[in-house]
Design goal:
It holds the Pfam family PGK. GO terms for molecular function: ADP binding; ATP binding; phosphoglycerate kinase activity. InterPro entries: Phosphoglycerate_kinase, Phosphoglycerate_kinase_N, Phosphoglycerate_kinase_sf. By secondary structure, this protein is an alpha/beta fold. The chain has 2 domains: 169 residues, Rossmann fold; 198 residues, Phosphoglycerate kinase, N-terminal domain (Rossmann fold), CATH 3.40.50. The chain contains 16 helices and 17 strands. Helix 14 links the parallel strand 16 and strand 17. Helix 12 packs parallel to helix 13. The longest helix is centred in the first third of the chain and has 15 residues. Bound molecules: adenosine-5'-triphosphate (ATP), 3-phosphoglyceric acid and magnesium ion. Magnesium ion binds next to helix 14. Adenosine-5'-triphosphate (ATP) binds next to strand 14 and helix 14.
């Protein structure tokens, strides 16, 4: 992979894919800045050399059309503060206005494009859409580690148009840290998975079965496994299409190095918003109820395993931590991992919402490494490569812009 210190950026327009998919509250305030902070070294490097910058990112999962709540205009102010200069904004990532603004960009100036996913072409990996984006810059940089597992236009297609394409400093740092840990993990190795992206992440568990000693599953991810074992999960989050995969993984784990540990108890209520909670066995959740957090016995079991582990990976909150009545499981586990860091265990935690939970519990700085990637981190651990890394590593067959 070529890195950004290999050229002089003076007078160049850098088209940079960043991952500004940050959690926002209902007033559109940023709840966690880790991903914006992570991009700063690359941006500062290029601006210091008198280059100019065009930033592109996604935010959330809009359905290919405009959605005010997911507009990247909500991050402009924060960027201006961090970069100590004004940031221009293009209300559509392609089209005439974006082109004009990019063309008139002077050395040291920054332009942020609106959410790429307001166009279906982004997720479809459309070559035409990628071509329009590519025409905005002189050189391409991928610094979006958290999105580099996606074969989306801005990640894998845009770089095909460039001879000059680079991995940014965040991409480099993430790879360096994760590689270091994967090369020499200190046993016992524990992986903690939670969150809501079941379809995306369940597949990575197979590869982890031979790498880890324990795989602790909580959060929304757990109920697909519990249902696969004929448990009653009420209205809890489930991916019906993955039941078979979950069953197969549980079976396979009997012959694997890793032990899969599922929650034994859950904090339930009638909906995520309903604060009237009770603790029940995770396999006996009544029809009208949903599991919103791991229960106290599960927290005890998970904490005890974490306390004996020397390498710990964590992605995905253990409950709906955004709600006070479902936050305790995530807080207890985050604290247990932070305590492990204190006795020199390697602790690698990552993901957009996972990082937001760390911030909420004031545990920033309590881990060996906080990755900006969630799904990307898991896929990199599994394959040691990502489509977005490959895309800035191979020479383009046909280069349309240089
Ligand atoms: N039991 C549960 N039921 C429903 N949702 C849950 C449950 N537990 C956790 N969640 C939700 O999971 C979401 C986060 O999952 P996600 O997989 O996106 O994690 P992440 O750390 O952001 O990783 P990534 O960066 O890959 O998105 C949170 O918004 C949280 O409310
Ligand atoms: O939050 C993430 O993990 C990345 O920004 C990727 O988002 P996605 O899962 O919606 O592609
Ligand atoms: Mg997330």
């Amino acid at each position: 992979m070529k890195t950004i210190d290999e050229i002089n950026w003076k007078g160049k327009k850098a088209l940079i894919r960043v991952d500004f998919n940050v959690p926002l509250d209902d007033q559109h305030r940023i709840l966690d800045h880790t991903r914006i902070e992570g991009a700063m070294p690359t941006l500062e490097h290029i601006l210091d050399q008198q280059g100019s910058i065009i930033l592109m990112s996604h935010l959330g999962r809009p359905k290919g059309k405009y959605d005010e709540d997911l507009s990247l205009k909500h991050v402009v102010q924060e960027l201006e503060k961090r970069l100590n200069r004004s940031v221009k904004f293009a209300p559509d990532c392609i089209g005439k206005e974006a082109q004009d603004k990019a063309r008139h960009l002077k050395n040291g100036e920054v332009l942020l494009l609106e959410n790429l996913r307001f166009h279906a072409g982004e997720r479809e990996g459309s070559a035409a859409f990628a071509g329009e984006l590519a025409s905005l810059g002189d050189a391409y940089v991928n610094d979006a580690f958290g999105a580099s597992h996606r074969r989306h236009a801005s990640i894998t297609e845009v770089p095909k148009y460039f001879r000059e394409k680079f991995g940014g400093e965040l991409l480099e740092l993430e790879m360096e840290k994760i590689d270091l840990l994967l090369e020499k993990p200190k046993a016992p190795v524990t992986i903690i998975l939670g969150g809501a992206k079941i379809t995306d992440k369940i597949g990575t568990i197979e590869a982890l079965l031979d790498k880890a000693n324990y795989i602790l599953i909580g959060g929304g991810m757990a109920y697909t496994f519990i249902k696969a074992q004929e448990g009653q999960i009420g209205k809890s989050l489930v991916d019906e299409n993955q039941l078979e995969v979950a069953r197969w993984l549980l079976n396979k784990s009997k012959r694997s190095k890793a032990r899969i540990v599922l929650p034994v108890d859950s904090v339930i209520s009638k909906s995520a918003e309903d604060p009237k909670t009770r603790v029940v066995a995770s396999r006996e959740i009544e029809d009208d109820f949903m599991g919103g957090d791991i229960g106290p016995e599960t927290r005890r079991i998970f904490t005890e395993i974490i306390a004996r582990s020397n390498t710990i990976f964590w992605n995905g909150p253990l409950g709906i931590f955004e709600k006070e009545h479902f936050q305790e499981g995530t807080q207890t586990i985050a604290q247990a991992i932070a305590d492990a860091t204190g006795r020199d265990a390697y602790t690698l935690v990552g993901g957009g919402d996972t990082t937001a939970s760390i911030t909420r519990f004031f545990l920033q700085g309590s881990f060996w490494h906080v990755s900006t990637g969630g799904g990307a981190l898991l896929e990199y651990m599994e394959k040691r490569e990502l489509p977005g890394i490959d895309a800035v590593s191979v020479p383009s067959e046909t280069v349309l812009f240089s």
